[in-house]
Amino acid sequence: MTDGGRLVVGVSGVRGVVGEGLTPEVAARFASAMGTYCRGGLVVVGRDTRPSGVSLRYAVVSGLLATGSPVVDVGVAATPSVQLAVGEHGAAGGVIITASHNPGEYNGLKFVSSRGIFLNAEEGARLRQISESGRFSFGGQPPTPEVRDDRQAAARHVARVLGLSYLDVARIRARRFRVVLDVGNGAGGRVASGLLEALGCATRVLHGEPSGVFARGPEPVAENLKALAGEVAARRADVGFALDPDGDRLSIVTEKGEAVGEEYSLALSAEGVLSRSDGGVVVTNLSTSRMVEAVAGRWGGRVVRTPVGEVHVSVRMMAEGAVIGGEGNGGVILPEAHYGRDAAVGIALVLELIADRGGSISEAVDGLPHYEMIKAKAPLEGDLRGDLGEVLAPLVGGADLDASDGLRASWPDAWLHVRKSGTEPVVRVVAEAEVRARAQALVEEALGLLARESGRHPMTNREG
Ligand code: MG
Predict the structure, then answer these.
(1) Are 170 and 231 in contact (CB under 8 A)?
(2) What CATH code would you report for 2-151?
(3) How far, in Å, CA of 26 to CA of 20, rounded?
(4) Of 12, 32, 69, 100, which one is the catalytic site residue?
(5) CATH number of 372-462
(6) What is the distance in A from the centroid of ligand 1 to the CA of 98?
(7) Which residues keep their CB under 5 angstroms from ion ligand 1?
(8) Does domain 156-366 have CATH number 3.40.120.10?
(9) Span 407-412, average pLDDT
(10) Which of 106, 283, 286, 427 gets the highest tally of CB atoms within 10 A of its CB?
């Protein structure tokens, strides 16, 4: 990994290689900051399946108790189950011990506000300020706050999804779907399996051992889903679903054994929801496929784009009264459930869509316009000094521009998004077009302009 294992501090959390950037000491410090931030209010703690989460959990609980916060420990749980539990317990916040899709040697902490969504930029800055200042509210008066176990978060999560007004549970059950579920050795298995069972599916589980030792690449991108695709085809299943290790991202394999990529999870979910909500607003980030615009256009809806990062989408969805939203990386957010990305919600909406249409998952996929997306990244040493608008000016003349997160340029047939990564020292370049050659050309020209710009930097010539 290009971050060298150091601690990466983001808007809503921290992440690093365990024992290097992320130690028990770091975890206890951030948990102490969270307890201080929550003013001794109740905090929900959960973790994904990574073995390192066992010891980090003690460090986190210790930091919270020491600053006067009682803890509800939901144990190994999907990230959306923990977000829901914050609301269910009326908690002041939550801490999720997870490194999401990152490799097994990583772990991290994600911080949830009392609203059940990740800390936003302002809240995260306040937490970091407490952590850096070391001004923790240690030394409270007795009695010492308690730790309570709650092992029902997954069951409540399943019940919440089953209760969604968009679902016709009886109709889905009548289809008796044959499903292959690839849990990826993560924390999403209990919710996804429980949901599929309740929806009357005959489910074969792959990589279901909640070991945190990842038998496939942890990110549910198409190239990591060959085993799932093979199993779906071999078993003549109706659909395959794959989760990331903390169960907030969903990827789909068709009955033909084709891994269609994560972009389809939101697009198909939006297709079902918008067709019944008489239009409405869809919120997604600037790097998500324009399939979402096509779906919204079809049903009289409107798309609002935000900077990349779940909390940006969540906050904007609340402000816009969105009917659905999420991210192209397989993150589906349905406000009726809650305002966090939730793979189980995506599974339910996709099964509802194919039950409603009476066809197959590949017919639903073929019902969406097809675009070609290409992603690349360029190394970034030091900072990007030039304004992206100037650097990319030769390429983006005549395009509609959005500079709210790097630069996004869109044309009638294509778009290009160039942004500095929040987690790695790279510039991310994404393009999508109706024709692959067009997307490829946009990416290559952008990379060329970025290389020319960084060549002018004295900083890029320094050693290391
Ligand atoms: Mg995740």
Answers:
(1) no
(2) 3.40.120.10
(3) 10
(4) 100
(5) 3.30.310.50
(6) 8
(7) 100, 244, 246, 248
(8) yes
(9) 97
(10) 283
